[in-house]
Amino acid sequence: MSTEIMEFAELIKTPRVDGVVLHRPFMPTVEGTLCLTGHHLILSSRQDNTEELWLLHSNIDSIEKRFVGSLGHITVKCKDLRMIQLEITGMEECLNIASSIEALSTLDSVSLMYPFFYRPMFEVIEDGWNSFLPQNAFKDLESMTDEWRLSEVNKDFSLCPSYPPLVAVPKDVDDETLKKVATFRHGGRFPVLSYYHKKNGMVMMRAGQPLTGTNGRRCKEDEKLINATLRPGKRGYIIDTRAINVAQQAKARGGGFELEANYPQWRRIHKAIERYNVLQESLIKLVEACNDQSHSMDRWLSKLEASNWQTNVKEILTTACLAAQCIDREGASVLVHGTEGTDSTLQVTSLAQIILDPGCRTIKGFQSLVEREWLQAGHPFQQRCAQSAFSNSKPRYEAPVFLLFLDCVWQILRQFPCSFEFNESFLVLLFEHAYASQFGTFLGNSAAERARLCLPEKTVSLWSWVNRPQELERLTNPLYEPNSLVIWPSVAPQSLLLWEGVFLRWNRSSKCLDEAYEEMVHIIEYNKELQTKVNSLRRQLAQLETEDPLLHTP
Amino acid sequence: MEHIRTPKVLHSMVSSVERPPTTPSGGQLILRCKDFRIFQIFIPQERDGLDVHASLARLSRPEKYSELYCLSFNPNVNKEEREESWNFIDLMADYKRMGVPNNLWVATAANGEYRVCDTYPSELFVPKSATPTIIVGSSRFRSRGRFPALSYFHQDTLAAVCRCSQPLSGFSGRCQEDEMMLQALMKSNPGSDYIYVVDTRPKLNAMANRAAGKGYENEDHYTNIKLQFIGIENIHVMRSSQQKIIDVGEMRSPSMTDFLWGLENSGWLKHIKAILDAGVFVARAVADEGVSVLVHCSDGWDRTAQACSVASILLDPYYRTIRGLMVLIERDWVSFGHKFSHRYAHLDRDPKEVSPVIDQFLECVWQLSEQFPCAFEFNERFLIAIHTHVYSCQYGTFLGNSQKERRDMRLHERTHSVWPQLWKDRGEYTNPLYKAELSQSQGVLRPNTSPYCFKMWKGLYNHAEKSTPPRQSPADFLSAVREESQQLEEELTNHQEVPPGGTAHHHHPGSRQEDRSPDGEADHLGEDRGSPEED
After folding, report:
1. How far apart are CA A129 and CA A454, in angstroms?
2. DSSP class of residue B356?
3. Could A297 and B373 be called an inter-chain contact, meaning their C-beta atoms sit closer than 8 Å?
4. With the C-alpha atoms ordered A509, A513, A518, A522, is the resulting torsion angle positive or negative?
């Protein structure tokens, strides 16, 4: 590790500059000393030596520098969409700082990332790395049905590099069959269980696209596997997250979709969820619209429209509602896939669970959902979240797939403000940590990569930090009232709003909204306090009555 | 009509009745209401449909005031209540609250019997140095005689918001008394040596008015004024813009592109922003710069009313209370001659006079309440209730086009005022998050008017969405919790009347035990909320 620290030292040309002025939106200007460490940009004001700014280099998306005389201005644009400005006197120092930040914020090696260096300053009550083990989740399933089994066929990640070692598959399908099916599905992603709907025993599965190619290759084992999930005489739905023409085109590259002739018991529905490069473009345009300084309503609305962000939100939510509807209303099982089955597929399966399963709307349940349907399911976080909206480099694998999922959850939360145990802050927190974090949770692109990096041994889990009383309190929705119902969000454009908590977070003061939130908490806390008092008084009185028979004769 | 089942809709709320072609299953009528609700009525017999259509078409287009609902019942039922209802809002008390009259602003009798200006109230406040000669002279130089008068006095800075109509200046006209009047306005603010004249029209429109002998103040003739144009469009533009946003609200399963394009194309939010910007300009001048402002448009009863009342909302927390908003509307809209009956088509008259002027003011307040959730005592329902009554003609408050017209119609003797009714229902209109002690509730509101801070007002323009299962409302939930807390507080107070310790036993009144509900009230929480979710 000492060689790595040496490596940082080489990158830091100037570790410390005095008299740096920091400008942040809606906060007072601060003058102080700027320090660069291996992982942080720190600014502390001289007066009381308190840190005014403590920014992870990995949170920096891009920087811009310009000079007015010898006064340098560095604009730091962060992955959480914040923009800050530093004024540094002296051209050389400014250039040094700028190039150091640039180098430190674009480290290639995962093992140099901060989570490998971070030592928690808090007491870990429950190790988050062990909070959501697949075998534990399966115990719940076993209590509801015996039609599924946990397979270890992928225990060394050889069958499917993006799957976890343990997956739930139909009981009657053996590992040999799974091996054959894996060769027929994109990335070896054979159909696995995503969700079991307790109410009617219907299931949701997910997979990669079938590799039918142009000559319509078929795989009997694949047909057998997914038919094994159907009840006698029942039909199922295949939700293909690509438009039909996109799915057709995939055949030329060896992909494709399930042909009716080979899957007569399944009805295929195509929806058009955008793919990653298009989504990245959409995010960049949206953020640009939010930072437009023209103050023209027409311009804002037309830029918002042109970004297509809200259209993407609507499309994803609509598809999730469709999947949920097939399961809950039609009483049918569902298989979801797109191309790889690691992006739009996961958006749909996880949102459908939010709609159907009240368990997913609790804090722990949501963590478990993110763990199961995103981390274990092989969403390539490291690739997708390498850059955010301000990046100057051409996007390769970057895409706000997870952010769109969180946005959709926020839309449902806003429409059902009493049905979620967590509040908006929790969603914002997950967005931040997916892009830059001191915790190891979102590092790597799959369970296999995380195992190789020995993350549970070498880093702290985000869940270890979140699941402490003081954090939980901050993230708990005071309006929450547990209910066991399915919640159907409206997907009408009028009902879908821009997620201000993320996209306008740094463009406006949040003081009044924060005050409103505190007031809301206060109203509910006060009510609880009164209830406790009244209940204890009632008990006291009841006791007095039994002790003193005189009371009964007024 | 026995076989027709409709919810109760006042005839005056009906904006149009359509009769699509009859189908084999019978005919139907489509009722569009002025509060943007739409009803479909199915009528099996074609003949009945025709009759109903004709009746409704006639009844929804009253030609005389006497046909209106509020004038069609016996006013002497509840005579005392009726008389009392008109005393509920006391404008003079509000002027007193803001510190007027004082040594800067005085009441003038000049408009007694509406002699000088028949669309102004009879009781008005003007600068102390404005003599009757100046007032009368100035009024002759202003459209409809609407001379500069006080709308709001800001005690903290001694600056004032005043209002009038455009000057009849043409290209070169001037009027000494009017110039003296503006000088008097300036002198009534010891803290500043100039005033702002805010012309709320787009500059081009104001210039066009000069050709007709009207226009705006020539800065060469008036000393110590700074002229500012704001650019709020006229009533015709607003009328067609509102129709477009209503259409957006009524779109059947639009795509996101359709919706956002429709929103942009309607121009509605742009207009709302312009009005709020006008209010912000006035409020900043008065509160931050301590400079008095004179606001006008053309006649000074539409855009001027909007700008002045938005400024008052921003400047004075009182107008953000339930009673305060009533007072504000009564002052800047009702008393200053906003033409309610023309603008909201109470009678079947010139459709070009109709325009959603007060709709826009109410929406500005709603947009503000979204930014400052704890600053307003009332909720969205209160704003919508006012909106409904502006159109409904169920009460006399908004009838007619001026104070004089209302006096001539003897409305106080023949109808009831709407305000006591709304006050009675205030429980329903209270914002549970309102907290007078917070900084956002006190003092001046400084809203962000960036375009992204404006949203479509779903509560008003999206009734179709509302008819699907209602969503959970945090506000209603919190109101229920607060109500329950109140009951608990009462129960606690009752219990605490019992002194602690052994001696208490004998003093404990037995009846107290019966008061206690054995199950406790803690469970009501869930019931009050109902279950808005579907299973």
Report:
1. 11
2. -
3. no
4. positive
| Rounded-to-integer distance, Cα B256 and Cα B140, Å | 53
Give the helix/strand (H/E) hosting B149: strand B149-154
Beta-carbon separation of A516 and B534 below 8 A? no
Q: A168 forms bridges with which residues in the sheet?
A: A150
Beta carbons of A527 and B474 less than 8 Å apart: no
Residue B448 CB neighbours (<10 A): 14
Distance in angstroms (rounded) separating the CA atoms of residues B232 and B203: 10
CA distance A311 to chain B (A): 5
> Is A401's pLDDT higher than 80?
yes
Mutate to test the interface with A, among B460, B472, B497, B513 (most CBs of A within 10 A): B472
Does B254 sit behind a cis peptide bond, omega within 30 degrees of 0 on the bond before it? no
Q: pLDDT 10s per residue in chain B (535 long)?
A: 334 445 678 888 888 888 888 777 778 888 888 888 888 888 888 888 888 888 888 888 888 888 888 887 666 667 888 889 999 999 999 999 999 999 999 999 999 999 999 999 999 999 999 999 999 999 999 999 999 999 999 999 999 999 999 999 999 899 999 999 999 999 999 999 999 999 999 999 999 999 999 999 999 999 899 999 999 999 999 999 999 999 999 888 899 999 999 999 999 999 999 999 999 999 999 999 999 999 999 999 999 999 999 999 999 999 999 999 999 999 999 999 999 999 999 999 999 999 999 999 999 999 999 999 999 999 999 999 999 999 998 999 999 999 999 999 999 999 999 999 999 999 999 999 998 888 777 889 999 999 999 999 999 997 655 444 456 788 889 999 999 999 999 988 887 655 444 433 333 333 333 333 333 333 333 333 333 344 3
- For B435-498, give the DSSP string: -TTSTTTSS-------GGG----HHHH-HHHHHSSPPP-HHHHHHHHHHHHHHHHHHHHHHHTS
A515, closest residue in chain B (CA to CA): B374
The whole-angstrom separation of Cα A345 and Cα A325 is 16
Widest distance between CA atoms in chain B: 92
What would the pLDDT profile of A524-551 be if each residue is shown by its tens digit? 999 999 999 999 998 988 888 887 666 5
SS3 label, residue B229 = strand
Task: Kindly list the residues from chain B whose CB atom is less than 8 angstroms away from the CB atom of residue A554.
Answer: 509-511
Give yes or no: B364 in active site.
Answer: no
d(CA B270, CA B454): 9
Determine the distance in angstroms separating the CA of A276 from the nearest CA of chain B, rounded to an integer: 20
- Give the β-pairing of A334-337 and A236-240: parallel
Instruction: Copy the structure tokens of residue B77.
Output: 């039922």
What's the complex ipTM?
A: 0.93
Cα distances (Å, whole numbers) of residue A301 to A120, A314, A455, A501, B270 = 45, 17, 44, 19, 10
Across the interface, do A493 and B255 touch by the CB < 8 Å criterion? yes
In whole angstroms, how far apart are CA B20 and each of A267, B30, B48, B196? 39, 8, 14, 54
Q: Alpha carbon of B330 to those of B68, B91, B114: distances in Å?
A: 21, 8, 18
Instruction: List CB contacts (< 8 A) between A537 and chain B.
Output: 492, 495
Q: Determine the residue of chain A that is closest to B510 in CA distance.
A: A554
B488 vs A488: CB contact, 8 Å cut-off? no
> How many Cβ atoms are within 10 Å of A210's Cβ, its own excluded?
27
A297, A495, A516 member nearest B273 (Cβ): A297
Q: Pairing state of beta strands B149-154 and A27-36?
A: unpaired
Helix-, strand-, coil-residue percentages of chain B, each rounded to 5:
50, 10, 40
Cβ atoms B337, B346 nearer than 8 A: no
Mutate: best of A313, A416, A523, A538, partner B, most B CBs <10 A: A523
Extract the tokens encoding B13: 């709320």
